[in-house]
TrEMBL record:
Residue ranges occupied by any Amine oxidase domain in the UniProt entry: 25-163
Gene3D superfamilies named among the record's database cross-references: FAD/NAD(P)-binding domain
Stated name of the protein: Spermine oxidase
Listed transmembrane segments: 154-173
Source organism of this protein record: Papilio machaon (Old World swallowtail butterfly)
InterPro entries, per the entry: Amino_oxidase (IPR002937), FAD/NAD-bd_sf (IPR036188), Flavin_monoamine_oxidase (IPR050281)
GO molecular function per UniProt: polyamine oxidase activity
Swiss-Prot/TrEMBL keywords: Membrane, Transmembrane, Transmembrane helix
């Protein structure tokens, strides 16, 4: 995501009151790059919650709010919480569905697309129906990130994203780049690709 030309971190700087040299918040203590491996929740009143990190650090608090993504929760709930979560909570986590969104950022030497923020592949119903038979994921769309004049972003979600995450490089090269030709002449000045797949294990599970 983008926050104009300043990066998405600007959004958090505003929330934390550190934007443009702001003083921050007096009672704020953020630990970056600190993975939580265990949350020991109390069985007795007045007993603090213990949060254990991968680096061995342990933090104690009266209350802990867990806001990990559903993907991380599904993968780690059986080992993250001590003692184990009640059966009804574990069942609720198992039954929650997870959406998948893939983002592919492609940089070109020069901008070749028309002046617009969003582009749809396979404009007509006939084109979409024909594509779905073999490559349904190419019916999705692309956008232009803020602050970049020669970069375009491909977006895939749902079943299409799952397929792209499996066969990304082969299919993107064979189909994704070919679809760009619908906008004009063949494009051959690709300079860089960044692929973000939130179905990957770890912090990127969303």
């Amino acid at each position: 995501m983008s926050w104009h030309r300043n990066g998405y971190k600007t959004f958090f700087e505003l929330l934390l009151n550190t934007y443009k040299g702001g003083p921050g918040l007096a009672n704020l203590n953020i630990k970056l790059n600190t993975e939580v491996t265990k949350i020991t929740w109390p069985q007795k009143p007045l007993t603090p919650v213990e949060v254990t990190c991968k680096n061995g650090e342990v933090y104690r608090a009266n209350n802990v709010i867990v806001t990990v993504s559903i993907g991380v929760l599904k993968e780690r709930y059986m080992t993250l919480f001590v003692p184990s979560l009640p059966e009804e909570k574990a069942l609720a986590i198992q039954r929650l569905s997870m959406g998948v969104v893939d983002k592919v950022v492609i940089s070109y030497l020069n901008k070749w697309w028309p002046n617009s923020n969003v582009y749809w592949f396979n404009q007509t119903k006939q084109e979409r129906d024909r594509a779905v038979k073999d490559n349904g994921w190419v019916t999705y769309f692309a956008s232009v990130p803020f602050g970049s004049g020669n970069t375009i972003t491909l977006w895939y979600s749902g079943d299409a994203a799952k397929l792209v995450s499996i066969v990304f490089f082969l299919f993107l090269y064979q189909r994704g780049f070919m679809d760009f030709n619908n906008f004009g002449p063949i494009i051959n000045h690709l300079t860089y690709i960044i692929y973000s797949d939130n179905s990957i294990s770890g912090f990127k599970l969303n």
